[in-house]
Design goal:
Number of helices: 5
Number of strands: 4
Largest sheet: 4 strands, antiparallel
Radius of gyration: 15 Å
Strand content: 15-25%
Strand order of the largest sheet: 1-2-3-4
Shape: globular
Order of helices and strands: HHHHHEEEE
Length: 179
C-alpha cells in the first residue's frame, strides 16, 4: 500500500472496521468476516493467544490450519444467532470512556459515536507479553506503525491489529481481553 496521509489512512481503517463489524456482528457472516483477516494472520502464532482465549489449543499453535479453525470458532462465538439491526445493540458503549481515557491522544476516531476505538500505535507500545518469544514475537510481525481497534463486546474488549496488506487494511492479530 502506497504511503498515504495519516488522516486518509485513519478514515480507511475506521471504514474497514465498521464494515468488518457489520458483516460479522450484524449480518452474522463468518465467512465474509474472515476475509477481513490478512493472509499474515494465519501465520501469526500469537493470534488469539491471550489467557482468556481458548480458541486455539496451545499444543496446536504452530499450525496455520489450527489458527484458522480457532479464528473461525472465535468469530462464531461472538456472532450470536439473534438478528440485530445496529451496532449499538451489540457493543457496550459504557465500556468505552475508560478505554478512551487510557488510550489518550492515540485515538483517531470519534469512538463514542462509532462505538469502538481506533488508535494509531507503534510496536513499542505493545504490552511486553505480546512481544515475547513464547507469544510468537508479535511486535516483530508488525510494521513500526499500525492501527489497533478496541471493540467492547460481551463484557470484555476484543482488539484487532490492522496493517496494510495487498492495498487494503487487514487484520493481522486478534485478542480477547477479559474485564
Amino acid at each position: 500500500m502506497a504511503q498515504q496521509p495519516v488522516p486518509q489512512q485513519e478514515d480507511q481503517v475506521r471504514d474497514s472496521v465498521r464494515s468488518f463489524l457489520t458483516v460479522w456482528l450484524l449480518d452474522g457472516s463468518v465467512e465474509k468476516a474472515l476475509e477481513f483477516f490478512g493472509e499474515s494472520s494465519t501465520r501469526n502464532p500469537a493470534l488469539l493467544g491471550g489467557s482468556c482465549s481458548s480458541f486455539i489449543p496451545s499444543e496446536e499453535r504452530g499450525s496455520a490450519k489450527a489458527r484458522r479453525s480457532g479464528l473461525k470458532r472465535f468469530l462464531l462465538d461472538f456472532a450470536g444467532s439473534d438478528r440485530r439491526t445496529n451496532l449499538a445493540q451489540v457493543l457496550d458503549a459504557e465500556a468505552l470512556p475508560p478505554l478512551i481515557d487510557q488510550l489518550g491522544e492515540r485515538v483517531v476516531n470519534d469512538a463514542e459515536s462509532d462505538l469502538f476505538a481506533v488508535a494509531r500505535m507503534t510496536r513499542e507500545e505493545l504490552p511486553s507479553e505480546e512481544n515475547s518469544a513464547e507469544n510468537g514475537g508479535l511486535g516483530e510481525q508488525l510494521p513500526e506503525h499500525f492501527y489497533a481497534t478496541f471493540v467492547p463486546i460481551d463484557g470484555g474488549i476484543v482488539y484487532f491489529l490492522w496493517v496494510p496488506e495487498a492495498s487494503e487494511w487487514k487484520i493481522r492479530h486478534a485478542e480477547v481481553d477479559c474485564l
